[in-house]
Design goal:
single chain, alpha/beta, Rossmann fold, GMP Synthetase, Chain A, domain 3, 3 domains, 9-stranded mixed sheet, 5-stranded antiparallel sheet, 15 helices, 31% helix, globular, binds 5'-O-[(S)-[(2-aminobenzoyl)oxy](hydroxy)phosphoryl]adenosine
Amino acid sequence: MKDNIVTIDNSIFPAKLEFSQNFNVAVPFIDRHLKEGRGEKVVINVHRGSVVTYATLAEHVNRAGNALLELGVSPGDRALMVVKDAPEFYYVFWGAIKAGIIPVPLNTLLRAKDYTYMVVNSEASAVVYSPEFSDEVETALKAASHKPKVVLPSEGSGETLAKHMAGSSSALNPAPAKPDDDCFWLYSSGSTGNPKGVVHAQKDMVVTSQRYAVETLNMTSEDINFSAAKLFFAYGLGNAMTFPLWVGGEAVLFAGPPTPADMHEIIEEYRPSIYYAVPTLYAAQLRALEVNDADLSSIRVCISAGEALPPDLLRRWNSKTKLPLLDGIGTTEILHIFLSNRETDIRPGASGKPVPGYQARIVNEDGNEVSDGEAGSLMIKGESLLKLYWQNPEKTAESLRNGWMFTGDTYYRDEDGFFFCCGRSDDMLKVGGIWCSPVEIEAKLVEHPQVLEAAVVGRADDDKLIKPEAFVVLNNITDASEELSNELLEFCKNGLARYKYPRWFNFVDDLPKTATGKIQRFQLRS
Ligand code: 3UK
């Protein structure tokens, strides 16, 4: 077999995927399109900005890979990316992969202390960032005990990656790689402790693109994809980059925060055929549509993931827009959606059924499969599971058992085969589709001089979407006031990533605890 190719046997379903022994995934995702005559086709449409063709993309990917190598980043090294949704994201990500370097896209909403941890934990050789994030990134690097060799803004004035790219060759041979070799990482957060580096292999993006985008959504080169979820998130990475690149389609990129007004304006102007968002945003869009109608007629299907889509929200979206909305669950570890509703098979309130190529099991505490209707721990087997958690063999052994991954979610299956989410098996919250650790918010609250103790739990808002609620014990209960809750709110907003603040504050005399002093969050929830 030739190098760097995937053979797809469509005579069976799910199609059989076969990878050449030598396999650098940048070739089928980037270079293949030139051979297939797609060079002049548009791949990226930047909102109020440039248009990038497949030929320009391939050239800039090569320049970015060469620039990183020339700057002294070696194959196998990690290149951290704090990069907004823009063509540079594609250039750095794929340039690194083609050069054998491991890109690690980071959440651009994080704070300096989060980045410090990731710089040290990954022992990164390079950090590339959009100039917008320079404050947090520079503060993080000053505090880090590990110093990356290369630290560069992607663009702007002075020394930038763009400047190095302009002086680098536009030709680059793909670094030798095997289908199961390390390709890229994403960081995933847990309820306690630090984020974990999730290591994915070369073949994994092919698997998610084929299984979910092609075999579940029937995506083709005609589709224009617009994702409100950003590229740094595994959800957005698939939606707005790997899926369109796999089918030879198109993506619309927007760098700003996803407000309903901006989403509606972009949909009207760029006319996407597939739209991806999180439940919180669909709820906000519905409220906005009550006031200002929008033409969403270009969309053939809407996708929801990141947190459970409440059935009532799905019904309201259907009745207002007449558009199908498919809920599906994915994880960073499995890379993209593995249980999904289908356009012809939707069950409100359910995450759907397994995506082709994935198997799902629900087990009890003894590891035995439960019967239909009974809740248990959701486990998944498939071809895109993480290889391991970086330098965390305990967590890897705990999560991966004989090729099955524990998702940490509690689910039941009904007699028709639909999977229903009952919540997390830990205390973690999904807020607007992004992880929120109660422990982290509590630690921030306790830093306030008037706070003795705090506990944070999830509470459903009017749309049945979970948001953080704080229970606070003050040093002096007589300090309790609306003024103090506002002060604590600002304290959290300034000290944490901006989506992590509690939406409600309760001042209480004490917190329910176990004999060993552990806060019993389940008591506060009820
Ligand atoms: C929760 C859901 C109910 C669930 C993701 C699409 O969210 C993604 O990845 P993360 O690693 O979080 C994974 C966890 O989020 N969750 C996600 N979707 C749903 N719960 N219904 C849903 N539809 O707790 C899961 O374990 O941030 C989403 C594609 C790729 C992804 N990585």
